[in-house]
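re: that chain from earlier
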Amino acid sequence: MSRQNRDKSKEQVAGTIFVTVGNGKFDPLVMELDRLKKEGVVKKNIIIQLGHGAYKPQHCQWFTFDPDLHKYYSAADLVICHGGPGTVFEILRQGKRLIALPNRDRTDPRHQVEYLEAMAKETAALLYCETVELLAETLRKAEAHQFTSYQPPQCMMHEVVAQFLQ
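^ sequence. v structure.
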């Protein structure tokens, strides 16, 4: 691939919102983003990783899976994801601006809610969006939000283990 094509490829991803739903499906989120793009509420380019979702967006770029999502995270201005802890921490470790929503259809309806509520209280590194219906409002909040770098709590497990062994 020539340098010019590589640079053009980066331009297509830079200045975008990248959305990942993980290995499952999150059609309500994908449908809402497609609607917001169609109606001009979201002006930026949107790239969506659909997973096993059935809905195929008409107004956003999309793909089902890619073994390396880091390239999309790195190039995006903002990442939107489901509330899976692995995905959330992966994105926060990269220092990306993040909106996270619970996928209430994926597991126990409260599981991701409780986790994301706790994370939102702990750090300003992410914005918690309680429901898909609040996404447009949360996107507006993200424009002014002062995202911070995520600082994980200090691990004290070694002290707990040492104390247990004594």
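The helical segments are 3-13, 27-38, 70-75, 85-93, 111-122, 135-144, 157-165.
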